[in-house]
Amino acid sequence: MAESKRLHATRIQILPKGSVQFQSVSKTTYTGLVDSEARTIEISDPDDEEIKTVRINDNLRKTIQPGSKVNTSLVYLLYFSIR
Fold first, then answer.
1. Which pLDDT band, with edges at 50, 70 and 90, does 12 fall under?
2. What is the pLDDT confidence band of residue 44, given thresholds at 50, 70 and 90?
3. Predicted TM-score of the model (pTM)
4. In 10 A of CB 33, how many CB atoms?
5. DSSP characters for 10-59?
6. Which of 33, 69, 75, 81 sits at a 20 to 30 Å CA gap from 16?
7. What pLDDT score does 17 carry?
8. Pick from 76, 71, 59: which is nearest to 34 by CA?
């Protein structure tokens, strides 16, 4: 929150008319290695067989170093079109 104690939008996206998008952040933290091109994170958690690779956001690619070990949470986007 900002000093004025108001929430500020950081990413605004215009959606098609009649649609809605929800975002959910997982509470689980995953450990992995960034690939050589800084495009994906290879998850190294042996307990989770479902998730192997996570795509890295374009804005984050500028600041993350290839080959580095990272901890991350997943963001799930749900997109609905109302007709």
1. confident
2. confident
3. 0.53
4. 15
5. S---PPPTTEEEEEEE-S--EEEEE-TTSSEEEE--TT-SS--EEEPPHH
6. 75
7. 86
8. 71
In one letter, which amino acid is 81? S
The span from the CA of 65 to the CA of 18, in Å, is 40
The answer to whether residues 44 and 32 touch, using CB atoms and an 8 Å cutoff, is yes
Residue 27's pLDDT is: 83
Structure tokens at 23: 């975002």
pLDDT confidence of residue 1: 46
Residue in 78, 76, 79, 77 with CA at minimum distance from that of residue 28: 76
Indicate the DSSP class of residue 68.
-
Cα dihedral across residues 44, 26, 17, 57: positive or negative:
negative
Instruction: Give me the phi and psi of 26, to 5 degrees please.
Output: -70, 150
Whole-angstrom distance, CA of residue 79 vs CA of residue 59: 21
Find where tokens 């009649």 sit. Answer: 18
